[in-house]
Write a structure and sequence with these properties.
binds flavin-adenine dinucleotide; binds FE2/S2 (inorganic) cluster; seven-stranded mixed sheet; 15 strands; Rossmann fold; about 20% helix; Elongation Factor Tu (Ef-tu), domain 3
Length: about 280
């Protein structure tokens, strides 16, 4: 029987700097796998440890994938500082459910990301631009980061915004001289200053026929959720990536519960209607 705790090998082929503390790691897998946008992998550096990350590349049956990682602690520091192309890493997964793309037929999908949260959402966007494109009504992307230099995947925004069914707005938290000067101008993308929730002011979508999916720091998810509810979204229309600390990834270690739900197994993208009665944002 296959041991679910045993990682298989993935060769690191390339590392791309996205920002000063976010890099994209390109991996060649030793065996193909099939994943859905939003499902996550446990990535391990031999002798150091493993951590959960959601691939940022196109979902489907793949023998290569990218994972985009914020440098934040022991394992991510190691990945940022020590590993190099040619090194072998370990992978387990995919785990979790992924984004509920089956619900999106005929609907508008409002994709709301903050910081490195656009990485998991990029896999969802690639699915929306690919297999789901003919079926969805519209794709509205709202993305915010601290400063212009903290925006990830900057070289792709114009291509995304050019698509007929897509609109995109981005914001940076505080004014920045180069933003004002137009040094970060993206054709077809609306740009402003303020926390990501500012992008939901004057929202131009048919709310009844829209699903929102959001990924970012939990504090951002909290305020995005409250704003969406204020705007008239029902809890059933809101999906949140609850990227909490995890260990086993398969519902065995009890590290990741919200109420009766295991985020690793039942999520990590959770419908707000399912978790709203279990204090999902804790003391935030
Ligand atoms: C399902 C899932 C998908 C994820 N996808 C991505 C991704 O695509 N890209 C990415 O950069 N990160 C992602 N994360 C977060 C990533 O797993 C953590 O940043 C990583 O585990 C930190 O490990 P570390 O050893 O470097 O940090 P540690 O030394 O363990 O911790 C350093 C700091 O990071 C905080 N931290 C640890 N784990 C998390 C977490 N899960 N969420 C928020 N803060 C945390 C700690 O509280 C501490 O402040 C995901 C997490 C989950 C659960
Ligand atoms: S990570 Fe072990 S139960 Fe979810």
């Amino acid at each position: 029987m296959k041991n679910i705790y045993y990682p298989y090998k993935a060769e690191l082929t390339k590392i791309k700097d996205e920002t000063s503390n976010i890099k994209t790691f390109f991996l060649k897998l030793s065996q193909p796998l099939t994943f859905k946008g939003g499902q996550f992998m446990q990535l391990s550096a031999p002798g150091i440890g493993e951590a959960p990350f959601t691939p940022s590349s196109e979902p489907g049956e793949v023998d290569e994938m990218t994972i985009t990682i914020l440098k934040t602690g022991r394992i991510t520091d190691y990945l940022h500082e020590k590993v190099k192309p040619g090194d072998i890493l370990g992978l387990r997964g995919p785990f979790g459910h992924g984004y509920p793309t089956h619900l999106f037929d005929g609907k508008t999908v409002l994709v709301i990301g903050g910081g490195v949260g656009l990485a998991p959402l990029r896999a969802c966007l690639y699915a929306l631009f690919g297999e789901c494109y003919d079926r969805v009504n519209r794709i509205s992307i709202k993305y915010g980061a601290r400063s212009p230099y903290d925006l990830v995947f900057r070289d792709e925004y114009e291509e995304w915004a050019k698509k007929e069914k897509v609109d995109m707005s981005i914001s940076i938290d505080r004014p920045h001289p180069e933003w004002e000067k137009g040094a970060f101008k993206f054709d077809g993308v609306s740009q402003t200053v303020g926390l990501v929730t500012v992008l939901l002011d004057n929202l131009d979508v048919d709310i009844e026929n829209t699903y929102a999916v959001s990924c970012g720091p939990e504090i951002m998810l909290k305020f995005v959720t409250y704003k969406l509810l204020d705007l008239g979204f029902k809890p059933e229309q809101i999906y949140l990536s609850m990227n909490r600390r995890m260990s086993c990834g398969v519902g065995k270690c009890h590290r990741c519960n919200i109420g009766p739900y295991y985020l690793c197994k039942d999520g990590p993208d959770m419908c707000y209607a399912d978790i709203m009665n279990y204090d999902p944002f804790g003391s935030l």
